[in-house]
Design a protein that fits this description.
The complex is a heterodimer. Chain A is an all-alpha fold. Chain A has one domain: Helix Hairpins (Orthogonal Bundle), CATH 1.10.287. Chain A contains three helices and no strands. Chain B is mainly alpha-helical. The chains are: A mainly alpha, B mainly alpha. Chain A: It comes from Candidatus Brocadia sapporoensis.
Chain lengths: ~100, ~650
């Protein structure tokens, strides 16, 4: 029997993988994908909880998250393209001029 | 008709606003006639109010006009309300009447000045402030007028502010007045603490119901503090020094300050608070002593001054001393009477001296005048009337009022007051006629450059002179002994029974009924002696004065330098203040402590920032790491924190 605990643990694992990916990877696209992973981990827990609590609100939230994620993907990819045109790299260690 | 009283204030205010905002774009004639018209209308309304007041029975002559609620804070309530009673009506008639003539005169006198509209704007504001001062029905509103008068005097004394001496004089007037106002403000606070009200009617009725013992400490303190204010505004010892310097302003301004407004404020205030002052014999003694000493002191300085306006300035201080003497011995009516007659003849003298200065293209030194009588006849005649009036020759205005003050000083006060006052009267007659003789008689010492331009002033300047000369002539008949109309009129406010008491005491007591008449003869004789001495010294034997000056060189020098009072004040108050200001307040408190703490905080923030900025690496990974750490911390706190 798969309980809510399993869903939440899987969600936590996926989220942690996403966080670690954001922290240690250098390729902007990979980081971007890791952020998507974090979002979807949250989506998973939303759906699981909605099912568990027998409420539609959690599922509704998932739609919002997906909409925002889609918009974010569009804007984010556009930024990455723009950065690549300027610096010919998407290695974020080379994009560090925003500092003191 | 009494309801119109607010209009008296409104007209000058309208004149101020229009001339102040749009005066630059208006034609000169418009500006002048607007300002004059405002005061003229004010005078008409004042007269209507006066008629309205006369129609009431004497005991009910008190009318309060509530304008709006002004300040309400806890138990402190102050309304903006006006009070019409015989005292304030006398004051507004004098202020608007004499003020109107001075405005009219100013049209001609200031015609060539480039600050024409500014001048009339200030002048109207001055009259407005003074009217507010005398019409208010509580101490706080009176204080507003009191301060506004100080402000206007500052603006007008420093009217020609490009001149250093003028701006210095304006500052001096302002600062010295501030010292007095400080006392006045404290007095008002003490009144509120004591009576829980600042309305005239409430305070004075509380006093008259006998809740306070005669000579109680609180009342003495209140009256003394108020008197400090009066010494500042009315130029008495020790705060008189600003007034001679105030001569830096245009001459009509001097006339306005000295006659209709400003300096009479102190006398008015003491007369208004007569119920309080009568409760404190000690303060009364102080007032009378300061008054008589000032009268004598200023008169002695006036003996040797050579600036035509400065002589008049010292004579003003001296005459104000008489008014305070009268108030100090309890003869408030006599004080207000002298205030009124003095307003007439002093305005006349100042305007006439302005006419002389105008004729001589700005010359003010009487050593460079002389023999002007045939050249400017109207000015001469009016100046003569003013001089005779101030010297105290019957039947001119000054005689009756000064004689009454001296009589009251003798009957109610003591022989010392009288003798000092009488001696000051002798000096007054002497220096005023010295001024007259040196200006208009004898040989002509005018330099020929000014001589070419010598001319009588235009009509709109001589007309006010003639009007004021008429008033100086008849002004005394309002208060002639026996049929004292002014005293009857003022009796509800100032307690007219006081005078009959004196008369009663005179006729019943050891003095006998002949005393007032004897006093009149003595006063006249004193004045005539003064005139005779001046005639001897400056007409008959012109060298005599120089010889006397040589003979008593020390005294002459002392008088010429005004007893070195300015220098003494400089040494005692001004220089130490300046020193403390620069050495301690500026260089230590301001630079070190205030600037230091502000700069120190900025420096500290800068140092901390220069350390913390290394957190901003530019690597997104670091920022994401901080966010994650923060999130984890929040979660840990949320789960385990409680």
């Amino acid at each position: 029997m798969i309980t809510i605990t399993h869903y939440l643990v899987l969600s936590a694992i996926l989220f942690t993988v996403g966080v670690i990916g954001v922290l240690i990877r250098r390729n902007a696209i990979i980081i971007f994908m890791c952020i998507e992973l974090m979002l979807n981990a949250v989506n998973l827990s939303f759906v699981a909880c909605a099912h568990y609590l027998n409420s539609m609100q959690g599922q509704l939230f998932v739609f919002f998250t997906m909409t925002v994620a889609a918009a974010e993907a569009a804007v984010g990819l556009a930024i990455i393209v723009a950065v690549f045109r300027n610096k010919e790299t998407i290695n974020i260690d080379d994009i560090n001029i925003m500092k003191w | 008709m009494l309801n119109l009283v607010a209009l008296i204030l409104l007209f000058p205010l309208i004149g101020t606003v229009i001339n102040g905002l749009a005066g630059k774009r208006l034609r000169k004639e418009t500006v002048g006639y607007l300002a004059c018209g405002a005061i003229g209308l004010s005078f008409l309304v004042s007269f209507m109010v006066f008629i309205g007041l006369l129609q009431l029975p004497p005991d009910e002559r008190l009318f309060e006009k509530h304008l709006f609620r002004w300040i309400e804070s806890g138990s402190f309530i102050s309304a903006a309300a006006l009070q019409v009673d015989p005292l304030s009506v006398v004051m507004i008639l004098v202020i608007t009447g004499v003020g109107f003539l001075i405005h009219l005169y100013s049209i001609g006198y200031m015609h060539h000045d480039k600050g024409y509209h500014r001048y009339f704007c200030y002048l109207n504001l001055f009259v407005f402030s003074m009217l507010l001062l005398v019409l208010s029905n509580n101490f706080l509103l009176m204080f507003i007028g009191w301060e506004a008068v100080g402000l206007c005097s500052y603006l007008l004394i420093g009217f020609w502010f490009e001149k250093k001496s003028a701006s210095d004089a304006a500052k001096k007037a302002f600062v010295v007045n501030r010292v007095g106002d400080f006392g006045f403000a404290l007095g008002i606070m003490l009144i509120f603490l004591t009576f829980h009200s600042i309305d005239f009617t409430e305070v004075f009725s509380a006093v008259s119901h006998g809740n306070f013992e005669k000579g109680s400490f609180t009342v003495t303190m209140i009256t003394l503090l108020l008197f400090i204010g009066a010494t500042g505004k009315s130029a008495q010892i020790p705060l008189y020094t600003w007034l001679p310097d105030a001569m830096e302003g245009p001459t009509p301004v001097s006339a306005l300050i000295h006659a209709a407004t400003m300096v009479t404020a102190g006398v008015y205030m003491i007369a208004r608070c007569n119920a309080l002052y009568l409760l404190s014999p000690f303060t009364m003694t102080v007032v009378a002593s300061i008054g008589v000493i000032t009268a004598l002191f200023a008169a002695s300085v006036g003996l040797v001054q050579n600036d035509i306006k400065r002589v008049l300035a010292y004579s003003t201080i001296s005459q104000l001393g008489y008014m305070f003497l009268a108030c100090g011995v309890g003869a408030f009516t006599a004080g207000v009477f002298h205030l009124m007659t003095h307003a007439f003849f002093k305005a006349l003298l100042f305007l006439a001296s302005g006419s002389v200065i105008h004729a001589l293209s700005g010359e003010q030194d009487i050593r460079k005048m002389g023999g002007l009588k045939p050249h400017i006849p109207v000015t001469y005649k009016t100046f003569l009337i003013g001089t005779v009036a101030i010297a105290g020759i019957p039947p001119f205005a000054g005689f009756f009022s000064k004689d009454e003050i001296l009589l009251e000083a003798l009957v109610r006060g003591n022989f010392i007051y009288w003798s000092l006052g009488a001696f000051a009267a002798l000096l007054t007659a002497f220096y005023m006629f010295r001024l007259l003789f040196m200006t208009f008689h004898g040989e002509c010492r005018v330099d020929h450059h000014a001589m070419e331009h010598l001319h009588e002033s235009p009509k709109n300047m001589t007309l006010p002179l003639v009007a004021l000369a008429g008033l100086s002539f008849v002004g005394g008949f309002f208060g002639i002994p026996g049929a004292n109309a002014l005293e009857h009129f003022l009796a509800p406010v100032l307690g007219g029974h006081g005078h009959t008491e004196v008369r009663g005491a005179v006729s019943a007591g050891h003095h006998g009924a002949w005393l007032p008449y004897l006093m009149m003869v003595i006063s006249t004789a004193i004045a005539l002696v003064g005139i005779f001495l001046a005639y001897q010294m400056y007409i008959k034997k012109p060298g005599l004065s120089k010889k006397l000056a040589e003979r008593f060189r020390l005294i002459h020098k002392l008088l010429l330098n005004k007893y070195y009072v300015d220098e003494i004040y400089d040494a005692i108050f001004i220089n130490p203040t300046k020193k403390i200001s620069t050495q301690v307040l500026w260089k230590v408190i301001d630079v070190r402590m205030i600037d230091g703490s502000v700069n120190g905080i900025a420096w500290l923030v800068g140092r901390i920032g220069s350390v913390l900025r290394h957190l901003q690496t530019g690597y997104i990974r670091n920022y994401a790491f901080y966010i994650v750490v923060g999130c984890i911390l929040i979660i840990v706190l949320a789960v385990f924190g409680r």
